[in-house]
Write a structure and sequence with these properties.
binds inosinic acid, about 180 residues, four-stranded antiparallel sheet, Rossmann fold, globular, binds magnesium ion, alpha/beta, 3 helices
Amino acid sequence: MLERITLHDKTFRLFIKNEEIEKAIDTIAERLNSDYANCTDEDPAILLCTLNGAVIFAAELLKRLNFPLMLKACKLSSYAGTCTTGIVKTDVPLPQHLEGRRVIIVEDIVDTGGTIVTLMEQLREHKVKDAKVCTLLLKKDVYDKDVILDYVAMEVPNLFIVGFGLDYNELGRNIKDIYVLDK
Ligand code: IMP
Ligand code: MG
């Protein structure tokens, strides 16, 4: 594992090791397994992966979840470079047939919360029975929305990070550990 990496024009240093991330995912998965134990093949949970950032987290979760579920995906974007644009774009809309379903939104990171608020509104329009948020990371000091974040694996300070699905202008998603922008 490298102490420092370079992506495009920026240098990042090691911040959270893969083992620590995986342990946090174990804990979240145990909670989900207990809370969704009453799902059935007729009434499965919908795991809604928000592309592209959440793919690795969603895959790691999937390996650990033991209740009936279906995997779906949508794609929203709000970041350009290392900053939020404040505008949430829908690149791939929600799948059909979510009415009456219990949805678990799987996010890589909640920052301002704009993405989560937009998704929650869209899920309400789709008449889902229930929607919960499951995020690998939360920037607690930045998040200022009212949506309850039911499952948060790890809290991080307000710094720009990459790795484990998170990118800097599309690079860095395939790095196993999380790195932080080196000032
Ligand atoms: P929000 O809508 O402000 O909560 O931003 C959420 C989205 O912004 C996440 O799903 C990420 O795609 C992206 N994002 C936020 N913080 C970071 C970061 O530190 N590194 C990489 N992407 C980030
Ligand atoms: Mg994302």
